[in-house]
Amino acid sequence: MTLSLMSAEYAICRLPASADVPLWPMQGKFFSITRTEEELSIVCEQSLVRDAEPQMKVERGWRCLKLHGPILFETTGIIASFTKPLADAGVSVFVVSTFDTDYLLVRSVAVEQTMQILRIAGHIINE
Hints:
Blueprint: E1 2-5, E2 10-16, E3 32-35, E4 39-45, E5 57-67, H1 78-88, E6 93-97, E7 102-107, H2 111-120, E8 124-126
Parallel strand pairs: 1-8
Antiparallel strand pairs: 1-5, 2-4, 2-5, 3-4, 5-7, 6-7
């Protein structure tokens, strides 16, 4: 599988489930907004995060690797092919999936280690 390292740094944010969906994350090239009964979760470019949001928790300093897709829904083991070698090395991940593909977020401080591990596991990484 081939992945590309995206250039921006990302943040993962949590707002209360009842919060209005803010507009600021939508200014970036890549963002994900998910609402559940427990939370409103936002992944977006770190530079767009507005700290003034009440009750918001923010995890900064993430980099994103995009899997080249599209990936058929019938395909199995794709995420495991990334997460297993990273878990074995103690690298924490945050995954976002879309209709066509998957995005793997890792801490910025671990991005070089992550790319090395994934290359050893047989993946191609475009920087």
